[in-house]
Every structure is written in structure tokens, then in C-alpha cells.
């Protein structure tokens, strides 16, 4: 029961980070089922990473970006990836994944997003290093 | 239960199905022994609709797109079999248990399903050239008739263009090619305007020959362009071997025996005993027949033959096409909506024929990426998932995948062996070693460079080359190479197994060379040819 509550909190925070919209009950339940199925065993370091990520979506973006460079196979990232897959396979959120026609001005937005992603990754690397040093 | 037949066929994959059909059509009494796993989970829940409509409306889509146990959310690095979607995962469900294989250098994929690996076939069809068939150990006149018979039965679609000499050649009754999708059409148009320049470099591009109907045939429907080809076979427009088995099951002179793992055979004066281990009860069973046709796939046949000849040979040779793929971005399609109606299968083929003799040709099959879901592409980016999602949604329509097969021939460093292992289901385990020589690696790398260059000329920017583990092409051959001396562990051209009178092999075990082109049509044509030889052997 306690675990399920934790997973629900994770699901909502991760969704807010990924697509900035509220999560519906079915996708929430799917995330809980997936976590129970995968039964990840987190190390002390990974638990710290996760609790830091859940504090704010800005921090989650940085830690996710840092891990994408330093440790892309980390279990914490796999949790985000699982939520991403669940959202894509849901009619409520499919518009965030299906292709559509973009205007030419979108190139500028993509440039900003690219720069932001690099900045987030650099900050993330520093945060991860701090968390790791506290755990060792 | 009937345990005695005139003819027993082992395996229901592409070769077993065609061999059995050839015999049944001639009125013979045929029993087919097979493990025969079926999909009991997903078939009923996938709607008969197009991908985009399903994505927008079906609340239950997560069950088949991600899998009931979320097995469709891959995390590990590229492994053989990871390309199978959850509704196709039954193809290999019990392979590890029933067909164990150990190796650090070779990761084969084998199927225990009704219809075999044909259930996940990409549908590409090729009539091999005279030189290719000779290198395999076959003669062109023998094969051409069988190619035509199989093609007329399964139904092929394709076009006459620069790819035809490498693809369907002069086959008759070919249905019109599928409607080309916008992404690949951009590449095709670019080729047409740069044709002379590319042809001078021995590069040719053409439409694929596919076992996909564009007109109704034999109770099967023309393709509906619903882009669900990796998930469902709803209207049977794609040929699958299980379709043949289901047709045969309606005939009185055919009996399908599922849950039967054939372990070995023993030949006596007028009879062959076929030893079976039942996969449901673990019991041993003995079937009897006058003629036995082995077609459980190259590795399956090797296991049966090695056991039947009391493990008299330690090593059998093995060949397998190395496979890599290159995700590319086609700039013309950046930020565009993908059309609603399309097929998932490769629609263009790029050939590099350095010697202009249709031999030792390199080949890339081009297909666009949509119905395998965006999240798998997002995972490959070195960015945080939220930003990667936005960028990849924009790039989605421009993604083109070039799947490259390389030809292969035998060498001392490519072989399989069998060893005793009491803990395994059959008491033994197959092991393998497959190491490409430095020369082979260099040749393959040079070919990949040439293909990347050609793709750039066509407006496709290659991102990176991903090499799958050896075995990933799922094309195997050469374990019992063709020879006419009748030696043990070889096959005669007629298909007869050396050292036997009435045992034939209808799969690719005899092939001494594997062209880069897909094998399946040739395997089926060879199975048809062998089955006819069996009939003529009375």
C-alpha cells in the first residue's frame, strides 16, 4: 500500500515533468503495475537521486539530462522511460507523440530547446556528482 | 492418435509449410510434427483499424503496444529478438527452454511457434541470380520453376525498375507494388533525378518485392494500409506460414501434431522412426513414416541430425548474414505529418553491385519509422527525456531506417557444436562460435561507407551505424553443406541427407553461401523443389 502511494506520487511528478499535464487514473494505475512488475531494487545512491528528482520538475530535468550523459542505463531513468512509454500508449496523451505539421518558426523553438537541454545536462552532472559524493 | 504416415514433415515454418503443402497437393498422407506455440493473448484484442485511429481512440492499446507484462518497453542494449513486438513475442516464447543455445559470439533466434519465424518475417522477396544460386550449391533451372510456383501461391507485389534484376527478376503474376509512402517517395524521386550518377557508381534503387497482397488472392485480402504490420495479421494480406498450415488442416490427408519436439530419427529397412518429446507432458513418443522431411530450421535440423548420428561429428560449419542498420534523417520531411494510410514494410531497396554481375551484392532495405512507437527512438538520444520528446516529435516524419545485410560464406571460425547437458529439456545444448575475419570486417565496413554515401546523395543524413549481435539477421545456413558424395553431415542436391535413404532436408542447412538479399523466398522455393524430389524418389 505504502509502495503504491509512492509510485502514484512518482507517476504524477514524472508526467508533470515530461508533458506538463495532469495524469489520469488509468495511466497512473499502469505505472503502478509496471513498477510492481519490474520490482526495481534501488541502491542508496539511486534512492537519493529519485528523492531529489521528485522535489521539482526543474531538478528532474537536470538529473535526467545529467544521467543521459553519465549513466544512461540508471534505474531512475528507466522509471521515467517507463512513464514515457505509458503516456505514448494512451489516447489521452497520444497528441504529444504523433507526428504533425510544424511551422517554420518551430526551428527557432527547437534551437532554444536544444540549448536548454545542454544546460540542464551540465547542471545535472554537477547535481549527480554531489549526490554521489554524499553517498560514498 | 495416428502415429504412422507415409510422409512426416518436421517444423511448420516457411520451409515446412511449403514442403507439406507440396506433398498434400499431390494427395499424399502427411503428418506435421511441430512445437506449435500460438498467440493466445493479443490476437483478439487488437482492433482491425489503422495505426493513427487506434492511437487516438483505443483505451486498451497499452496492453498490446507495451505488453501485458510491459515487456514491450525495452531497456537493455540491442539484443537479438528485441525487434519483436509484444504480439509477436510468442514466436520465441519457449526457445530458451526447448532449444537452448550457448555462445559469447553468436546469438541466434529460433522459434517454437506455429508458422515459425515466418510469423515475424519482413516480407522481402528475392529471386537469387544464377551465380548466387550456384554459390549456394543449387542450379538455376531447378529453382526457377519452384520460385514461380511459390510466388504464385503466396502472392507477391512489386514493380519493374532498376531493382528488378536483384529482386523479383522475371517472375510472372506479380501484383502491382504497394502505394509508396511520402517519406520513401522523396528518396525515390531523388534517385530518379540522380540515377545516372549513382548507376555509374554501381548503385541501383528500386521498389521492394513483398509477400504482401495488393489484390485479393485465395481468400486473403489486399493490404489495407493500416500500418499495423508489426502488430497484427488481421486480414492476411501479408503471407505468413501459419496461413498455409491452417489451410492444410482443413484437408483429410494432413494432420498437424502440435506440442511435438522431434529429438532424433532412426532409419530401418522400410521405415523411419521419429522420436518425439512432448512439450506438454514430457513424454516420449515414436512416430513412424516411410519418408522424413526435416525443416525445423538450420539449427533445429543440426540438433536432430547430430543426435541421430550419435554425435559422430564435433563441429558443423555455420554461416549467417551480418546485419547492421543506419537511422537516417531525410531533410525534406522534417516537421511534417505522417500520412494516415501506409504500410510498415520496407518499400525501397538499395543495391551496391560492385562487379555488375549480380553476385556478392550489398543491399539496404529502406523503411520509415512510425508504428514501432516514438519512445524507443527517444531512448537513443543523449538528452533528458522531456526535451528529447519535443525534438523527436518534430524529427519523427523524417526518420528512415536503412537495414543492411552483408553476404556470408563459411570459414573455420564459424561453427556450432553440441554438448551433453542433463539439465536441459533434451539432454544437450547447442553451442556456437562465429568470428568474422579482419578481411571480412573491412569489406563490410567499406560497403557500409558506400551505402552511407549513397544515402547522403539521396538526401538522407545517416546518424549512426548500429551493428546487431551476430545472429541478429536470423538468416542461417551451411551446417550440412550440399555435396554429392553422400557423406554423413551433408545433403545431396536432391535434398537427401547423407548416410540415409529416406531422410530429406528442406530448409537452408545445405546452403554454402548466403547472399545479402533476404532468404525466405529462396528457402520456400527450395522446400518446394525438395518435396517434389521426395515424390519423384518413389
Write up this protein.
The complex is a heterodimer of chains A (136) and B (538). Chain A has 136 residues and is mostly helical. Chain A has one domain (2-135). Helices cover 74% and strands 0% of the residues of chain A. Chain A is built from six helices and no strands. The relative contact order of chain A is 0.15. The model of chain A has no long low-confidence stretch (mean pLDDT 95). By secondary structure, chain B is of the alpha/beta class. Chain B is built from 14 helices and 24 strands. Chain B has helices spanning 14-25, 51-57, 61-65, 95-98, 130-136, 140-154, 182-193, 195-200, 241-249, 298-308, 375-379, 385-395, 438-457, 520-536, and strands spanning 4-10, 30-33, 101-102, 157-158, 175-176, 203-207, 254-257, 260-267, 272-278, 284-294, 315-317, 319-320, 323-330, 348-352, 362-368, 399-405, 408-409, 414-420, 428-434, 460-462, 466-467, 476-477, 503-505, 513-514. In chain B, the strands form six sheets. In chain B, strands 1, 2, 7, 8, 9, 10 and 23 form a seven-stranded mixed sheet that branches. In chain B, α1 runs parallel beside α9, α1 runs parallel beside α14 (520-536) and α6 (140-154) packs across α14 (520-536). The mean pLDDT of chain B is 94. Classes of the chains: A mainly alpha (136), B alpha/beta (538). The A-B interface holds A 17-19, 26, 30, 33-34, 37-38, 61-62, 64-65, 68-69, 72-73, 77-78, 80-82, 84-86, 88-91, 94, 96-102, 106-107, 110, 113-114, 116-117, 120-121, 124 and B 52, 55-59, 61-62, 65-66, 69-70, 72-73, 75, 335-338, 370, 373-375, 378-379, 381-391, 393-394, 396-397.
Q: Strand pairing plus helix content of chain A: what structural class?
A: mainly alpha
Helix content of chain A: over 70%
Query: Low-confidence runs of chain A (pLDDT<50, min 5 residues)?
Result: none
Tell me the span between the first and last alpha carbons of chain B: 26 Å
Radius of gyration of chain B (Å): 23 Å
Strand content of chain B: 15-25%
Tell me what portion of residues of chain A adopts beta-strand conformation: under 5%
Number of helices of chain B: 14
Amino acid at each position: 500500500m505504502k509502495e503504491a502511494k509512492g509510485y502514484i506520487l512518482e507517476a504524477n511528478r514524472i508526467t508533470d515533468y515530461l508533458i506538463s499535464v495532469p495524469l489520469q487514473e488509468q495511466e497512473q494505475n499502469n505505472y503502478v503495475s509496471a513498477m510492481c512488475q519490474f520490482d526495481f531494487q534501488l541502491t542508496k545512491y539511486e534512492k537519493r537521486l529519485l528523492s531529489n528528482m521528485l522535489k521539482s520538475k526543474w531538478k528532474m530535468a537536470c538529473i535526467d539530462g545529467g544521467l543521459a550523459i553519465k549513466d544512461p542505463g540508471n534505474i531512475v531513468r528507466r522509471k521515467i522511460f517507463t512513464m514515457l512509454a505509458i503516456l505514448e500508449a494512451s489516447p489521452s496523451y497520444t497528441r504529444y507523440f504523433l507526428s504533425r505539421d510544424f511551422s517554420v518558426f518551430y526551428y527557432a523553438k527547437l534551437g532554444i530547446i536544444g540549448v536548454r537541454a545542454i544546460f540542464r545536462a551540465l547542471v545535472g552532472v554537477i547535481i549527480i556528482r554531489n549526490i554521489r559524493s554524499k553517498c560514498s | 492418435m495416428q502415429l504412422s504416415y507415409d510422409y512426416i514433415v518436421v517444423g511448420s515454418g516457411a520451409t515446412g509449410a511449403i514442403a507439406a503443402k507440396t506433398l498434400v497437393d499431390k494427395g499424399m498422407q502427411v503428418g506435421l510434427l511441430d512445437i506449435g506455440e500460438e498467440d493466445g493473448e493479443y490476437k483478439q484484442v487488437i482492433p482491425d483499424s489503422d495505426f493513427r485511429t487506434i492511437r487516438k481512440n483505443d483505451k486498451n492499446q497499452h496492453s498490446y503496444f507495451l505488453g501485458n507484462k510491459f515487456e514491450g518497453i525495452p531497456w537493455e542494449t540491442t539484443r537479438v529478438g528485441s525487434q519483436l513486438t509484444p504480439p509477436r513475442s510468442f514466436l520465441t516464447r519457449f526457445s530458451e527452454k526447448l532449444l537452448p543455445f550457448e555462445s559469447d559470439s553468436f546469438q541466434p533466434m529460433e522459434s517454437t511457434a506455429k508458422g515459425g519465424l515466418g510469423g515475424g518475417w519482413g516480407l522481402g522477396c528475392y529471386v537469387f541470380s544464377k551465380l548466387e544460386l550456384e554459390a549456394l550449391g543449387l542450379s538455376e533451372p531447378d529453382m526457377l520453376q519452384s520460385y514461380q510456383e511459390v510466388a504464385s501461391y503466396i502472392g507477391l507485389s512489386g514493380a519493374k525498375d532498376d531493382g528488378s534484376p536483384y529482386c523479383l527478376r522475371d517472375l510472372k503474376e506479380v501484383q502491382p507494388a504497394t502505394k509508396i509512402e511520402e517519406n520513401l517517395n522523396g528518396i525515390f524521386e531523388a534517385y530518379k533525378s540522380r540515377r545516372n550518377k549513382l548507376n555509374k557508381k554501381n548503385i541501383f534503387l528500386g521498389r521492394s518485392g513483398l509477400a504482401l497482397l495488393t489484390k485479393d488472392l485465395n481468400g486473403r485480402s489486399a493490404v489495407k494500409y493500416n500500418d499495423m504490420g508489426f502488430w497484427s495479421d488481421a486480414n492476411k494480406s501479408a503471407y505468413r506460414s501459419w496461413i498455409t498450415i491452417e489451410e492444410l488442416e482443413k484437408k483429410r490427408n494432413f494432420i498437424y501434431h502440435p506440442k511435438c519436439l522431434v529429438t532424433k530419427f532412426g532409419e530401418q529397412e522400410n521405415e523411419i522412426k521419429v522420436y518425439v518429446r512432448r512439450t506438454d507432458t514430457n513424454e516420449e513418443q515414436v512416430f513412424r513414416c516411410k519418408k522424413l522431411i526435416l525443416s525445423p530450421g538450420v539449427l533445429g535440423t543440426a540438433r536432430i541430425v547430430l543426435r541421430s548420428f550419435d554425435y559422430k561429428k564435433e563441429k558443423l560449419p555455420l554461416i549467417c548474414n551480418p546485419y547492421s542498420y543506419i537511422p537516417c534523417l531525410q531533410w525534406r520531411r522534417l516537421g511534417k505529418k505522417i500520412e494516415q494510410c501506409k504500410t510498415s514494410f520496407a518499400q525501397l531497396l538499395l543495391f551496391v553491385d560492385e562487379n555488375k554481375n549480380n553476385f556478392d551484392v550489398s543491399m539496404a532495405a529502406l523503411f520509415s519509422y512510425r508504428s514501432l512507437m516514438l519512445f524507443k527512438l527517444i531512448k537513443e538520444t543523449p538528452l533528458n527525456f522531456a526535451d528529447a520528446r519535443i525534438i523527436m516529435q518534430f524529427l519523427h516524419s523524417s526518420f528512415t531506417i536503412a537495414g543492411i545485410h552483408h553476404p556470408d560464406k563459411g570459414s573455420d571460425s564459424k561453427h556450432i557444436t553440441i554438448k551433453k547437458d542433463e539439465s536441459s529439456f533434451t539432454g544437450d545444448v547447442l553451442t556456437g562460435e562465429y568470428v568474422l575475419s579482419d578481411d571480412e570486417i573491412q569489406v563490410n565496413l567499406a560497403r557500409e561507407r558506400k551505402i552511407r554515401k549513397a544515402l547522403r546523395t539521396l538526401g538522407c543524413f545517416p546518424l549512426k551505424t548500429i551493428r546487431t549481435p551476430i545472429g541478429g539477421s536470423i538468416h542461417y545456413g551451411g551446417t550440412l553443406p550440399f555435396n554429392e558424395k553422400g557423406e554423413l553431415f551433408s545433403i545431396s542436391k536432391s535434398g537427401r541427407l547423407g548416410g540415409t535413404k529416406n531422410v530429406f532436408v528442406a530448409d537452408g542447412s545445405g546452403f554454402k553461401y548466403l547472399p545479402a538479399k533476404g532468404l525466405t523466398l529462396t528457402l520456400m522455393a527450395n522446400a518446394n523443389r525438395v518435396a517434389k524430389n521426395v515424390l519423384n524418389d518413389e
